[in-house]
Amino acid sequence: MILTGDLIERSVSSGKITIDPFSRDHITTNSYDVTLGNTFIRYVDGLIDVAVKPKTQEIRVSAGEILVMEKGDFLLGHTREKVGSRHFVPVLHARSGIARLGLFVHVTADLIDLGSVGQLTFQLFATRSVAITPNMRIGQVSFWKPYGRRTFYSGKYQGSVGPQVSKIQQDFEKALGQETTCE
Question: Which top EC class is given (predicted)?
Answer without folding.
Answer: hydrolase
